[in-house]
Design a protein that fits this description.
By secondary structure, the chain is mainly alpha-helical. The protein has helices at 2-5, 14-36, 49-78, 85-101, 108-115, 118-133, 139-160, 164-197, 208-226, 235-255, 264-287, 294-320, 330-349, 356-380. The protein has one domain: Cytochrome c oxidase-like, subunit I domain (Cytochrome C Oxidase, Chain A).
């Protein structure tokens, strides 16, 4: 048992959570697509497959990756030792049990109760170190993780009340909150990665006001979903989403360097971040009545934006934190392309073809299977 706790995979949070999250991303979307096309008969989880899919993508997949990233980043920010060994194993087991519970013969109250602990425990583990180190500039990230737990509570309340609208509000609020977290983290690391990756001289820091406005706007957008305000088009929300899209585009313009197109670990992040601008613009257009399906904006964010940023980020972080050269294999570069194409198919092909969703799911699953294939040995093995 001691050897298990001392295994390299449990030495830092990114190792087990990146591996588990990427594997779950492939399995969960494959299950969803097979059921959707009638290829997966049998008993459905509580609330049905749609409710399960909605819940598990932000609270299963995205939350695992967020945990892996922040449990690795916070020790760097604070200088305090990160979660490892048995405490880390315990947190992974809490996450894993919540995923398995949907298909175990459990009473509904116990199943839903098992979903609750992971995000509050994560917030406590992060908050303990941030508060002890006095890192107030990182408190907004802690707040977003805590609010993500609140979104899950709202979603689970929808299960208890058998209220599909309440479930949808909680899930969409969580999705846009994850988007907000990605914009905060992306705003910190993408320009830094571009500067370091291209050996560019340090540039003056971006003015803080646009970043603060984007953060506040993103939080307001998440609150608007939690409150059910996006159920019908509203012009004032069109202005909010248009502002966010403009700020994302401003960042992309500031970050652009022609050299990044030669470096897969850079263009993958850059193009994935561009999906955040697409998603917010699509929401603005939906509120103005110019596009008919809000789900196109939702999946621009979920598949192209969050999925693309996650794959690019975990590929780079896994190499850097295991002491390897920042040179991804050709297979992983293909994975970057696959997940971006998955977003394009889900948004631009689905309205015109019933096969669009199947193709998008196949591309998504292939991208994350490639990550698991190429990175399992890296994440399980010792640092070089």
């Amino acid at each position: 048992m001691r050897r298990l706790a001392e295994a390299p995979v449990f030495s830092l949070g990114f190792r087990p959570f990146f591996l588990a999250g990427a594997g779950f991303a492939a399995i969960a979307v494959a299950v969803w697509a097979l059921w959707l096309y009638g290829r997966l008969p049998g008993a459905q989880p509580l609330g049905g497959m749609l409710a399960w899919h909605r819940h598990e993508m932000p609270f299963g997949f995205a939350s695992a990756i967020i945990a892996g990233f922040l449990l690795t980043a916070v020790p760097n920010w604070t200088g305090r030792p990160g979660l490892k060994g048995w405490p880390l194993i315990g947190l992974v087991l809490v996450w894993l049990l919540a995923r398995l519970a949907w298909y175990l013969p459990l009473p509904a109250p116990l199943l839903l109760a098992l979903q609750v602990p992971f995000l509050p425990l994560l917030a406590w583990a992060l908050g303990r170190d941030l508060v002890a180190a006095g890192k107030r500039e990182n408190y907004p990230i802690l707040l977003m993780v805590s609010l993500l737990a609140g979104c899950q509570a709202l979603t689970l309340l929808g299960f208890v009340a058998d209220d599909a609208n309440l479930q949808r509000q909680g899930v969409l609020a969580a999705l846009w909150l994850v988007g907000a977290l990605m914009s905060v983290i992306g705003g910190r690391v993408i320009p830094f990665f571009i500067q370091r990756g291209l050996n560019r001289p340090a540039t003056p820091a971006a003015p803080p006001l646009p970043g603060k406005v984007l953060l506040i706007s993103a939080m307001l957008a998440a609150v608007s979903f939690a409150a059910g305000l996006n159920d019908v088009p509203r012009k004032w929300l069109a202005l909010l989403f248009a502002l966010m899209s403009g700020l994302h585009l401003l960042r992309l313009w500031r970050w652009h360097d022609r050299g990044l197109w030669r470096v897969p670990l850079l263009w993958s992040l850059y193009l994935a971040y561009a999906w955040l601008a697409v998603a917010t613009l699509a929401m603005a257009l939906w509120h103005l009545g110019w596009i008919s399906q809000q789900s196109l904006a939702t999946h621009s964010l979920a598949v192209g934006g969050i999925g693309g940023l996650i794959l690019a980020m975990i590929a780079r972080v896994s190499l850097g934190h295991t002491g390897r050269l920042l040179q991804p294999s050709r297979a992983i570069v293909a994975g970057f392309v696959l997940v971006l194409l998955a977003g394009a198919c889900r948004v631009w092909l689905v309205p015109f073809s019933g096969l669009g969703l199947a193709l998008s799911a196949l591309l998504w699953c292939s991208a994350f299977v490639v990550f698991v294939w190429r990175y399992t040995g890296i994440l399980l093995g010792p640092r070089l």
